[in-house]
Amino acid sequence: MIWHAICLGLLFQLILVFGSNYPKNVNIWPMPESVELGNKTLFISKDFNLKTDASKYKDHSGILKDGFTRLLDVITSNNVIEYNFGKVDQSVLLQGIHVVILSEGDELQYGVDESYKLNIYPKGNPIYAHIEAATIYGALHALQTFSQLCHFNLNTRKLVRACGMYLGGQYRSFKICLLLPTLVGCKTYTSRHYQSLPMIKKVIDSMAYAKLIINLSRWRYLHSQDCGMVLIQSQNAIQWLLQLKFYAQRRGINVLAELDVPGHARSWGIGYPALWPSKTCQEPLDVSNDFTFKLINGVLSDFSKIFKYRFVHLGGDEVDTSCWNLTPRIRNWMKQKGLNESTAYEYFVLKAQKIALSHGYEVINWEETFNHFGNELDRKTVVHNWLGGGVAEQVVKAGLRCIVSNQDKWYLDHLNTDWQTFYMNEPLENITKPEQQKLVIGGEVCAWAEHIDVSDIEQTIWPRAAAAAERLWTVPDKLAKDPNDVTSRISNFRCLLNQRGVAAAPLNLSGRGAPTGPGSCYLQ
Amino acid sequence: MIWHAICLGLLFQLILVFGSNYPKNVNIWPMPESVELGNKTLFISKDFNLKTDASKYKDHSGILKDGFTRLLDVITSNNVIEYNFGKVDQSVLLQGIHVVILSEGDELQYGVDESYKLNIYPKGNPIYAHIEAATIYGALHALQTFSQLCHFNLNTRKLVRACGMYLGGQYRSFKICLLLPTLVGCKTYTSRHYQSLPMIKKVIDSMAYAKLIINLSRWRYLHSQDCGMVLIQSQNAIQWLLQLKFYAQRRGINVLAELDVPGHARSWGIGYPALWPSKTCQEPLDVSNDFTFKLINGVLSDFSKIFKYRFVHLGGDEVDTSCWNLTPRIRNWMKQKGLNESTAYEYFVLKAQKIALSHGYEVINWEETFNHFGNELDRKTVVHNWLGGGVAEQVVKAGLRCIVSNQDKWYLDHLNTDWQTFYMNEPLENITKPEQQKLVIGGEVCAWAEHIDVSDIEQTIWPRAAAAAERLWTVPDKLAKDPNDVTSRISNFRCLLNQRGVAAAPLNLSGRGAPTGPGSCYLQ
What is the pLDDT of residue B193? Predict the structure, then answer.
């Protein structure tokens, strides 16, 4: 018959396969700084385990242990279990991973050393893979890389030499903007679209696969009137955020909070109508009202208890100040202060910056602030580009730091932008001086949620965010000159996401379309 | 400030809210046979627990315990935790659920009694909710219903009387067709589209929310040539199926296997070319070859060890027999036997039925078999309608059983069919005699996977499958005459799926489109 009797109870083993002709067959995404390929297939032992001898990091809070458990989950849930009908020779049996972490702490902060070395040499008895990392977070990345090397040996039993790989110190930060409701459960008002905690957790899991970090932005800040909320709901919101942050942190994912002012904050006035210029002219926030800044101070004070990341994002984009002139009270106030709409906008942004600085944050602001009054911005400001290309060049020339998100290439909600465009977007374009290159601290792909809710968030993000992840992680000279050279490898990553239950879209469509017909995920 | 200090460590409680004006505010989906509404809000205790005194079922395999753990997961992960700043009065504190199951066994089979009573009376000290069910599977349904009653008390602290509800013995079966690869991991060939185990598990979870069962269909049956597979991969496939079946069974979800013959089986010939009429004319399976039936016997023998459900589905649809006449060998064989294409098709289907019966199965066949030779079908045959309306009427008149899946209303891959159409499709249309009504054993919504892979399977299924679920579960006189009367309740269910991380699509689109603009999931 076609199937043999089911052999439950026998020793079962995972197979660890390395492709035979690097780099074509090394399906790691994003590609590490350096990879050396072996030629041996190792089998994962049934009692595959974690060893931490000589590690300075003691894992009191279980971050490493949990990461190892997730590794086992992901490689076993991924259809990779095979029943081995014979005994596997000790010389090809991988008994576990030996992790050595060189520093004690587990603080997750901007600039934390996330590099690692992963060596899988088929030597020793028993054989262990070896991870060496400066911090627990580098070790987590190494486990993700390891998981991508494990798969079911379908085509061949050929043994290939084991590989070692190394990701150096260089890295660039990366974020995804998600629009979140501050107050979950409010039926009528959410921030564009409700994103549920289980889905955000799922997105965080998948971000860890691609080694990304997260940016939560465009908060709605509501109060009781609009959906019957009372103070206690704010406690609920804090609890929600703490859960989210805890979940992300244990996966090595930083959470950056973005609080856009004075624009994109109209919803705050639903709870606090005093923040609106008037009932009929509702944004930007009232620049003339002390309460506006008292509230920003309160929010940032609360934020500082939750979000310990070095930066806070204060927005400053798309501010149409005409309501200020149309509202007599504000017009008079500006006149008194000798301000016009443009200088009042500057006044607002700089005042908000000062508040954030007083809470220990460095500030990120959207590029409009730089374009209008770049010289006045606090020198610790990071300018966030979005309007198009060529901005980073200007920002770093002015000695400020920059994050690149040019919308023509890195906005996920632009559904006509294909993964190749995401891959080819170079944040350092035309920036050649090393000291200026250092000022480009990273890039961010943005998923603005007008047309994104729980039903389509995953396929909007993936696989295109992965293309940007490689651009941000991989050393420039290892990046493909032609994105089509990495189609096979990124399609492998897309299938890996699918295998792990993540709804990553087909690659052969620009946005998040359905597959055009029957076929393998490796070819679509 | 807006947020108070974070009050960790205080007693926290879930709130259980019942709507105040039934049935409008009872957001249970699908609606039970009878619901009686109370007027009291109960708070879920921090140490909410499961009690099983007096239960005949002993839960040796932990099905109930796991179901209760999932209940806790789903209500706590769902943003429903609230910090209670005072002490909750014992008179409104729900301490747990007392489950009484009247039968010992846990066999999951067609016709198993899935009814339950769920009473949440605010009486007793401490107060327990009460579930009484004939079987463990009725109790699992009751826990799902309970989970839908728990939510964060957003609008009001008003106490409403607790409600009791009851789902009677009546039910109709329900299935979703999924196209699965038999051999996971094969890179080039899958059954239309690869569906990964983690995603199928997620779909099973969501099916349990809507109280559905599953039909796995259109297997690919491959062998080594096409992707380097060897025998051991079949073991892997069995393991894969067993995992899936175990996972489903513990959630009360039956798995029905569908093995379409002689059509829709072209892929088998990739592994066994002898099954093709010829290399250039590859389907249907060769009716003249003994090996064809030997193979079907082998597969069904294997199936019978895995799938213990009373039925197996043998297909029989869309058979274009012209290859049989075009292939000299088969043409000669037919001539010898005195068969033409039409009677050879009948010969094939009836022979396959006999094989299935010999393995203890009752057989489901697509309606073409009934349309061509209904009188010859085994009397245990269940005829599966798909071509359009009015078929069930003919089938039950002929004394055979029927499953309804008319493609114009219950095919999920028809993206222009809206949820209202799914809701209004009545399997008993024009069937008035009770003994004939009994022969309509259920309905099935089908998700054929030409354009469905991991990236869009969830939004293709939900929320439309839920509309059909209510049609199949709810007693006819409780069903809405106008589907728009239940828009609010089904949108609530869609949001519940979103809250639980399921990518259910907006309701205000016919298929699985993206939200048209910002807005609440309750309104889209």
Answer: 63
Q: What is the Cα–Cα distance from A120 to A149, expressed in whole angstroms?
A: 10
Q: In A340-398, which ranges are continuous DSSP H helix? A: 341-358, 367-373, 391-397
Q: Rounded CA gap, B422 and B402, in Å?
A: 18
User: Which of B83, B505, B506 is nearest residue A239 as measured by Cβ atoms?
Assistant: B83
The rounded radius of gyration (Å) of the Cα atoms in chain A is 25
A187 and A138 share one domain: no
Contacts 24+ apart (CB under 8 A), B302-305: B302/A1, B302/A2, B302/A3, B302/B238, B303/B257, B303/B259, B303/B359, B304/B359, B304/B360, B304/B361, B305/A6
Q: Is pLDDT of A26 > 80?
A: no
- Please name the residues between 131 and 170 in chain A that touch chain B, using a CB distance below 8 Å: 151-152, 154-156
What three-state secondary structure class fits B440?
A: strand
| Same domain for A295 and A191 | yes
Per the annotation, the verdict on B318 as an active-site residue is yes
Domain identity same for A232 and A314: yes
Residues 458-487 of A with CB under 8 A from B: 458-459
Q: Which of A114, A318, A367, A458 is catalytic?
A: A318
As for how many domains chain A has, the answer is: 2
Residues A192 and A113 in one domain: no
- Residue range(s) defining the domain that contains residue B67: 12-167
Does residue B378 form part of some domain? no
Please write the tens of the pLDDT for every residue from B357-412.
999 999 999 999 999 999 999 999 999 999 999 999 999 999 999 999 999 999 99
Question: Model confidence at A409, in pLDDT bands (50, 70, 90)?
Answer: very high
What's the pLDDT tens digit per position in A199-241?
878 888 888 887 776 666 555 443 333 333 333 345 556 666 7
Tokens of A221: 């800040």
Residues A181 and A144 in one domain: no
Distances (CA, A) of A243 to A15, A248, A301: 35, 9, 19
When pLDDT is averaged across residues A350-378 and rounded to a whole number, the result is 97
- Distance between CA atoms of B247 and B243, rounded to whole angstroms? 6
The alpha-carbon gap from B133 to the nearest alpha carbon of chain A, in Å, equals 30
pTM: 0.84
CB-neighbour burial class of residue A290 (10 A; exposed 0-12, middle 13-18, buried 19+): exposed
